[in-house]
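Researcher: Structure prediction, please.
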Amino acid sequence: MSLNGSPAPRARRLGLIVLMLGAVCIGIMPNAAKLAYGEGVSPLGLLVLRSAIGAIGLALFLWARREKLLVPRKLVPKTAAAGVALLMAAGGGMGAVAYIDVTVASVIFFTYPIFVAVVNHVRGTTRLSLAEIILIALAFVGVALALGLRRESLDQLNYTGLGLALLSSVGITTVILTTTATTAALGTVRANLHMNLWGVVYFIALALALPALGLAGESVYPQSAFAWLYVLIAALGFTLGYLLFFVAAKILGATEASVLSILELVFMIVFAVTIVGERLTVLQTSGFVVVVVALVGFELVSARKG
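Model: Predicted structure follows.
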């Protein structure tokens, strides 16, 4: 089946299960990262280790299966572009919160399914019905509510922060579009391996350049067993989450998988409440419900259309 073909009912169910497992992994990642920060690890240090651990794990998996590790020369620019996009996504998000509220930055980041859907709609790869468009918009409203977006946060906006947050969203959009394309040629594991390898190169370069330019302090790496544990969990969540997402995208198509990946936010919130001990307001809880209802509706409409 093609990357964006209509899956059979059995394949669709498999794709949804894989996508949900990936969303669980991604949902764990920021909570593990928060615990790692509490142990003194710096955000950039975590990004370097996250990609490095992911690359090592994927390379060992391919080696154990006696599969190729290298990619054809003609595909190197695409895998390098995925790494740049990964840097854009992480760097844009980290930079944005220095200028605008983290809630606003997070809401803007979650516009990426809209960008993926628009690009594929314009390409003619996946045509969206009016019902699907309405449900995507409803899910986005739910995201804003679930993240606790408040009017006071909107009163403190500036163009630099908005631009960086948008850069983060465009970055993850590009990661999805480029890696979905390379997955068809390389397979999911090898495509993700090279995305992570380029990510290691770029994040290390950033970790060296920012302190040298006086734009950030030195990166701090784990100094305790707990810190290493949290970093490892974050890295596994990131690597498995993206790996499973692209497996699901191969079955469901990039647009449907991207929209349904908003489930990542649902699991982020669940783990934030159960593991980190955060509490939800009534407004956030209502947003949580809106997201779930909108995504279930989107899937029902997509399945009927397919």
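Model: The chain has one domain: 9-305.
Researcher: Thanks, that helps.
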